[in-house]
Amino acid sequence: MASLDFDDSGERAVEMALADATRFVLKPQREGGGHNVYGADVRDALLRMRHGRERMAYILMERILPPLVKGYVVRPGASVPPPLVDLVSELGIFGVIIGTKDKIYSNKQVGHMLRTKLADANEGGVAAGLGALDSPLLVDL
Predict the structure, then answer these.
(1) E strands within the chain?
(2) How many degrees, rounded to 5, is the angle at CA 28 between CA 95 and CA 88?
(3) Which SUPFAM superfamilies match (predicted)?
């Protein structure tokens, strides 16, 4: 992850992304999601805002390419049976920490969420209908 500030580090990040934009995602530092910039659009966006303050509102992250799995997406009104498709999943772990500035009373994992989306979809918001909540099946190999 790199900031796009106007310093040596920010300039190196811009040059790196311009050289191989498909490896990166531009993420705005704001709530709500769905405003990320991917692929060739990363290069176009950086060229457009390279010398403007707008670029400091983004961070540059190397794109994570998770392993693909085959699966079925069941949706209202879709074909039955659904086609077998390539999917990717993202596991989120929820934690809670309770403490003061001097002492931690509790720090533990309290839950998880697995989001799954079509492998060729950049965004995967469940609320936007682009992804789905899923259930992990963990096995001991």
Answers:
(1) 2-3, 24-28, 37-38, 58-62, 69-72, 84-99, 104-118, 131-134
(2) 60
(3) Glutathione synthetase ATP-binding domain-like
Residue range 29-80, pLDDT digits in tens = 776 666 889 888 999 999 998 898 888 889 999 988 889 999 988 888 888 9
Residue 122 has pLDDT above 80, yes or no: no
As a whole number, mean pLDDT of residues 88-95 equals 92
87: number of Cβ within 10 Å = 20
Q: What is the pLDDT of residue 36?
A: 87
SS3 91: strand
Domain 69-134 annotated CATH 3.30.450.20: no
Determine the pLDDT at residue 41: 92
How is the chain split into domains, by residue range? 2-62, 69-134
DSSP assignment, residue 120? Answer: T
Which SS3 state, helix, strand or coil, does residue 46 take?
Answer: helix
* Domain at 2-62: CATH code: 3.30.1490.50
Tokens of 95: 């934690």
Structure tokens at 104: 């931690």
